[in-house]
């Protein structure tokens, strides 16, 4: 009879070659994400079965993960300059993100000058902020299974989105301000302009300082105000002097001066 010696090798999950970052899925209920790779560190939040996490690296039996939006993040308010009531810019170098609103709590990330944060509340000299993409926690590897190498849809970028929203808002405010700069109010006498080649420009206003403007708009109404003093508000066409003798005002409103 032949004896076969069979050697069985068991490979632990930790010994399998892993590639970071990857998208992981939580496999149990009420699992702690902690401020460090030990049960002695503060709990930052709970995650539950089916929750997705971006896994960044391994340290023995612990995974370093990007903090989900339910996690606690605090930052000293003295290093934040408010842009809006719920949005600020970091004005210090190597500013610590902490797990609690005190300097003895664990550091879970760092920010540098110019980084932006979304502010949730204020307490005792600290801002509680929406978890920044540069803040991290740790979770026991037994509660995570690999899902995908594509993490693009799960990168939290709320501060980036808020910054973009504010940029668009500022651009719109600047555009409106520029438009308002070009709006003028002219008080003068309405007259019929005599150059028949100027299509649509039937009336002009001779201002109190003797300057002259062609008026574009309200033609069906202005005929009743010829040789009367009015106040016209409108936007000056800056390029009109290249085409006609006097600037053109695109009338927005007018009123009779008594």
Strand order of the largest sheet: 13-5-4-1-14
Rounded radius of gyration (Å): 34 Å
Gross morphology is: elongated
Helix content: 10-25%
Superfamily (CATH H level) name of the largest domain: SH3 Domains
Average residue-wise pLDDT: 84
Classified by CATH, the class of the largest domain is: Mainly Beta
- Second CATH tier, the architecture of the largest domain: Roll
Provide the low-confidence segments as ranges: 4-16
Count of domain modules? 3
Number of helices: 2
Strand content is 35-45%
Distance between the termini: 125 Å
CATH fold-level topology of the largest domain: SH3 type barrels
In short:
It is built from two helices and 19 strands. With 258 residues, the chain is mainly β.
Characterise the protein shown here.
A hairpin with a 2-residue loop joins strand 7 (80-84) and strand 8. The chain is built from two helices and 19 strands. The chain has 258 residues and is mainly beta. The protein starts with 21 loop residues before the first strand and ends with a strand. It has a five-stranded antiparallel beta sheet, with no helix packed on it. It has a five-stranded antiparallel beta sheet with strand order 6-12-11-8-7. It has a five-stranded mixed beta barrel with strand order 15-16-17-19-18. The chain is elongated, with a radius of gyration of 34 Å. It has helices at 158-181, 219-222; strands spanning 22-26, 31-34, 43-47, 52-59, 62-66, 74-76, 80-84, 87-90, 95-98, 107-111, 116-123, 126-129, 136-140, 144-148, 183-192, 203-207, 212-216, 229-237, 248-256. The protein folds into three domains: 13-68 and 138-156, SH3 type barrels (Roll), CATH 2.30.30; 74-131, SH3 type barrels (Roll), CATH 2.30.30; 183-256, NigD-like N-terminal OB domain (OB fold (Dihydrolipoamide Acetyltransferase, E2P), Beta Barrel).
């Amino acid at each position: 009879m032949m004896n076969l010696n069979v050697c069985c090798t068991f490979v632990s999950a930790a010994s399998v070659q892993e590639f970071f970052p990857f998208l992981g899925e939580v496999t149990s209920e009420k699992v702690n994400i902690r401020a460090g790779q030990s049960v002695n560190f503060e709990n930052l939040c709970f995650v539950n079965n089916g929750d997705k996490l971006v896994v960044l690296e391994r340290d023995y039996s612990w995974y370093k993960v990007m903090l989900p939006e339910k996690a606690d993040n605090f930052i000293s308010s003295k290093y934040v300059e408010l842009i809006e009531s719920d949005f600020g810019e970091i004005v210090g170098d190597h500013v610590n993100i902490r797990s609690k609103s005190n300097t003895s709590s664990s550091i879970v990330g760092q920010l540098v000058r110019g980084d932006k944060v979304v502010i949730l509340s204020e307490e005792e000299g600290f801002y509680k902020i929406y978890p920044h993409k540069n803040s991290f926690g740790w979770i026991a590897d037994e509660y995570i299974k690999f899902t995908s190498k594509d993490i693009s849809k799960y990168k939290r970028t709320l501060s980036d989105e808020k910054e973009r929203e504010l940029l668009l808002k500022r651009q719109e405010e600047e555009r409106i301000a520029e438009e308002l700069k070009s709006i003028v109010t002219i008080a003068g006498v309405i007259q019929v302009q005599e150059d028949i080649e100027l299509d649509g420009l039937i009336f002009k206003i001779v201002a109190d300082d003797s300057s002259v403007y062609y008026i574009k708009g309200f033609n069906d109404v202005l005929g009743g105000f010829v040789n009367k003093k009015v106040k016209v508000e409108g936007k000056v066409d800056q390029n009109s002097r290249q085409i006609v003798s006097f600037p053109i005002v695109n009338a927005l409103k007018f009123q009779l001066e008594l």
